[in-house]
UniProtKB/TrEMBL annotation:
Gene3D superfamilies linked: Electron Transport, Fmn-binding Protein, Chain A (2.30.110.10)
Pfam families (UniProt xref): PNPOx_N
Protein name: Pyridoxamine 5'-phosphate oxidase
TM spans (from-to): none
Domain Pyridoxamine 5'-phosphate oxidase N-terminal: start-end pairs: 3-122
Domain of life: Bacteria
Length: 165
């Protein structure tokens, strides 16, 4: 199932994703990733900044799962697929990693690009969606702000995102 534009837009607003891998001997690993980007309707790229276990596991077993959740809207996506590890010496590194390299700037060295070919995308919903189906998105967000002790700041028109304080 390829990403549609609404999915892509929501994923592009996510702050973190979590990459789940399994080692050659079956040990699961989950690692947060701050720098990632949707690539096209069928794939996304994730920066390996300091994730030797994720890289080693994906090389041994390329089946991966990626989760991303907007904690304020309390929804997100689970993506399953296969990963390919691309090192800086490979021809595809600069092309596939372009958005990652731009996000990282000089602050973070990207050791590998983890290219995930999407097999399936499914929606993640917080339990409140089924427990309180009539609750508005705004009410859900206000509850999350209280839970996490933050308040929304001015909406940044240039980036199209909310800033939190």
């Amino acid at each position: 199932m390829p990403m549609n534009e609404a999915m892509r837009s929501e994923m592009d607003r996510a702050v973190l994703c979590w990459l789940a891998t399994v080692s050659a001997d079956g040990l699961p690993n989950v690692s947060p990733k701050e720098i990632f980007a949707t690539l096209d309707g069928n794939s996304l790229v994730i920066a390996d900044i300091a994730s030797p276990a994720s890289v080693r596991n994906a090389r041994a077993n390329p089946k991966v799962c990626v989760a991303m959740v907007d904690v304020f809207r309390q929804r997100g996506f689970k993506i399953t697929g296969t990963a390919r590890i691309i090192g800086p010496g490979e021809a595809d590194f600069a092309t596939l990693g372009r958005d990652l390299l731009a996000k990282a700037g000089d602050a973070f060295p990207i050791r590998h690009v983890i290219l995930v070919h999407i097999a399936r995308i499914s929606r993640i919903w917080a339990p409140s969606y089924s427990l309180f189906p009539g609750r508005s998105e705004e009410a859900r967000m206000q509850a999350a702000y209280r839970t996490y002790g933050v308040q929304p700041h001015v909406h940044d028109i240039d980036s199209g995102s909310d800033k939190y304080v």
